[in-house]
Amino acid sequence: MQITTLGIDLAKSIFQLHGIDAEGKVLLRKKLRRQVLLSFLAGLPPCLVGMEACATAHFWAREVAALGHEVRLIPPAYVKPYVKRQKNDMADAEAICEAVSRPNMHFVAIKSADQQAVLMLHRSRELLVRHRIAMINALRAHLAEFGIVAARGAHKMRDLVGELQSDETDIPAVGRTALLSLVRQLDALETEIANLDREIHAWHRQSEISSRLATIPGVGVITATAAAATVADASLFTSARQFAAWLGLVPRQASSGGKDRLGRITKMGDGYLRKLLVIGATSIIRSAGKADPRTREWVQALLERKSARLASVALANKMARVVWALLSKGEIYRTE
Q1: I need a labelling partner for 147 at 20 to 30 A (CA). Which of 27, 129, 205, 214 fits?
Q2: What is the pLDDT of residues 134-186, one digit of tens each?
Q3: What's the number of CA atoms in the CB half-sphere (13 Å) around residue 318?
Q4: Residue 336 in domain
């Protein structure tokens, strides 16, 4: 008998393995250190290997697949129901081994190194943008203590900086030194964000998938590149609604007895991509007069019944379904 299904509980240094044969009999329970994992798997006959889709899973999935094994990544939330009683590495590996063999299990597509690199650009940019917002808020708060205020918006921050740097402001020299230090940090953040934007635009120009997604109204370069790098295989989703549900853009259900009870959106899945779609939908609603006739009529009819925020989320749901259609069919957006 040989191992046909193997569950691996990933970690930083110690990995737990659980292997079974075709009849479900346990043949392997073993702990391995990081340095010997690949050499051990290289000595096994090709089998089905399951892992939770965590931070390092895509790297290990590529390495293990190169050894001839079939690798499948499972969302951690779908593994949890298979954990028996106490939670530990051995129980987790057994649960992964059980979950990966289920015929109706949903899996995560394995990302390439290039896709992961593009997502690093996005995550780094998002972190720097949050730092820039915090820096701007700090500057506004400190300057307001001296009666120096400006209109809302990041572009209005330059007016405050100009007043700070002028000799007419009634701010003590010690306080001005501290605030100018924040200004220099803000300038450095803006420079780094601009550099990341250039890298993202360069990848967008050479990516055929990202270029097709950018033809969707409300989907710009940032959203298109994020979607192209995040969705490694659109065929894993059986329908456009399933893709929208994966992004958390469908209502949460509490239905029973044949009665449908729908609540707020689930907010499951990729929060970054969901946020970008909602922002794009909001821009369409604010400039609905410039949208194509079908979208304009749909938005206007929805705004007659719902608030602008609900309408933007509903439109983001619709945009997500269009994204899936373009990814799965290899086409561009057409208004007719």
Answers
A1: 129
A2: 998 898 888 888 888 877 777 777 777 777 777 667 788 888 888 889 989 99
A3: 18
A4: no
